Amino acid sequence: MARGVDTKALVFDLVRASGRASRAGLAERTGLTGATISTLVRQLMEEGLVEESGRARSTGGKPRTFVQVVPDARYAIGIHLTRCDMVLVLANLLGAVVARTRRPCDLGSHQWSQALTQAVDELVMGAGVPRERVLGAGVVGSDSVRAEILASQQARDISLLGRPVLFDNDASAAALGEWWVSPAGSTDDALVVYLGAGIGGGYLAGGRLRRGVNQGEGELGHVCVDMAGPVCSCGARGCLEAVGGPESVVRRAVGQEDLARAAGLGPQPGARGSVEANFAAVARVAQAGDLAAQRLLAESARALAVAVRSVVNVLDVATVVLTGPSAGAAGAFYLPVLEEELALRFGAGSRGLMEIRLSPSSGTAAALGAASLVLDTAVRATT
Question: Is 94 domain-assigned?
Fold first, then answer.
């Protein structure tokens, strides 16, 4: 179940996921008494988070009254920082993006925090959202970017609309965001695979993001896929990122003169734009028919699929979601290979079909996830 003993948040989650729900229906789904559900719904209504939204057709007794989330009751800002740009979104209580922008960002400069503050002010003002309804901001990036941000005096001086600022890993945030904004309701159990410059992910169990003992969950990029493979930046050999991560793909493309020229790559990954932008350029020429680019993506997809199959065999999840900017650029190459490999998983014949899908918000997944951190924390804090 989505939140266990966190009953008011559980009720909110179910209302949000289903679009609207009756008190009787919530009691049936949660196992809580009707009186308890009525109390929790009343509290959510008093906080302005849900409202009544009509009645069901009468079948002889008292018709059921539905409640639904009030989307514009609260908002959150999500910010995804890389070393060369920032993506900002403003999301409402349902996780729907009401405004977004992308700006250049040089983390090596002394003005990036001021540029970020200005971008947030302009985003909220341009959307016409009352500042008092903005709960706060989430700021996410890769582990190396996040470490650089947190070590900076500028990060300690950030004040975004005078609201709380949460920091997290981009892949973990994207996993939470996938659960929060899922258009068909929350996916209770899923492996979310995030492709950015590297490869990360998150494990959703019971609708909650599992953090791990050392907050190190989701390090899919460091699953070994080739014991004789190249040495990874972590020091181990044959990690998925070293064998088939987006940066690895770009590095190998840079070493092929014709391909590098066709994709407009610089002398090293990220030399012209971000690694993600370089990877997207390789994906574009692959889609245009470049065989060398297609081979690189096929090898990367196979390595990823092998790692995902290993994790799925351990966790036995029913859903795998592929997201992140690099997934958005090359999802068409990766999904078929994932489907083929996961058909070989242990027990597949007796456990039904697995859903493997590309997130519709791949390009802004990390920023959406950053906003979801704020929304999720705020909802749980009211309980």
Answer: yes
End-of-domain residue from the set 69, 92, 121: 69
In a domain, 2, yes or no: no
Determine the angle formed by the axes of helices 365-381 and 7-18, rounding to 10 degrees: 140
Same-domain pairing of 212 and 336: yes
Asked if residues 190 and 196 have their Cβ atoms less than 8 Å apart, the reply is no
Compute the C-alpha angle 84/85/90, nearest 5°: 160
Domain with residue 322: its CATH number is 3.30.420.40
Winning range, highest mean pLDDT, from 54-58, 66-70, 176-180: 66-70
Domain of 37? Answer: 7-69
Q: pLDDT tens across 85-123, in order?
A: 889 999 999 889 999 999 888 777 767 778 888 899 999
- Mark whether 242 and 299 lie in a shared domain: yes
For residue range 258-273, what is the model confidence (pLDDT) as tens digits? Answer: 999 999 998 888 777 7
